Amino acid sequence: QVQLVESGGGLVQAGGSLRLSCAASGRTFSTYVMSWYRQPPGKERELVARISSGGGSRNYADSVKGRFTISRDNAKNTMYLQMNSLKPEDTAVYYCYVRQLGSWGQGTQVTVSS
């Protein structure tokens, strides 16, 4: 089983930027399709972005297109989410997810003030 640890969350003003990281244990990180999800207060968890195992294919939720960028470094067993032009509605707990294993990280809080 893979262990996922998110970091990089925090409090930022609207229009600001944050970079989230998801560090994974194990030797097979490069074979996993990886995703970022988020759960806003009082709402359902939703998909933010997904990246293929090799990084060549990326998909984004419409709400973050043009502002967020998902990437990965397979040599470091780490996935990233660069978040620019943040809005108050981006406030949520952000989670990384391995689809093949059904594994979630513990989440990192992102709060965007207006």
Commentary on this structure:
The protein has no helices and eleven strands. Strand 5 and strand 6 form a beta hairpin. The protein is globular. By secondary structure, it is mainly β.
Strand content: over 45%
**Helix/strand/pairing category:** mainly beta
Tell how many strands the DSSP assignment holds.
11
**Shape, principal axes of CA atoms:** globular
Order of helices and strands: EEEEEEEEEEE
Mean pLDDT, all residues: 96
Low-confidence stretches: none
How many strands, which pairing sense, and closed or not: the largest β-sheet?
A: 7 strands, mixed
State the distance separating the first and last CA atoms: 40 Å
Helices, by number, come to: 0
- What helical percentage do the residues reach? under 10%
Oligomer: single chain
Whole-angstrom Rg: 13 Å
